[in-house]
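Hey, sorry to bother you again with one of my protein questions. I've been staring at a protein lately and its backbone has me curious. I owe you a coffee for this, so here goes:
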Amino acid sequence: MKNEKKPDHVVYNTETERYDAFLKPYATSLSAPVITTTDSLAWKNRNINKVNKHVQAKYNELKTAYTQMMQQYEYNNLVYGAKFNFEPIVGEIYHLYKRTDASIFLSIIAPEECNFNHVNSFYLDADGIWHKK
């Protein structure tokens, strides 16, 4: 069979010997719909801003939780490092005092009832964790 030249408006692939207008990523006739590119840049920027705000909010939550946890850790080190000769009762309030020699002790005596150098007041929860009052 003889290869005949097809007219310019006919989309014919000579290598595969097929009509392949439907495979082209562009319009192949005047009656084809206009192909326009969508503006994905605005969509990307909106979503990037959303993700950044979400990640920033989560980071701030974690940072706050970490700060609170480290503060609680320091309080527990302070109280458990203090001297006391009794077994603290869960839920009761205890007071931390500093002696003149810089040693720290835990007491049930309220700051209004004594002349010791008051550091802070704490209570013990059921998990054995000291919380600042």
Summary: The chain has one domain: 39-132. Residues 40-80 form the longest helix (41 residues). The chain has a mean pLDDT of 89.
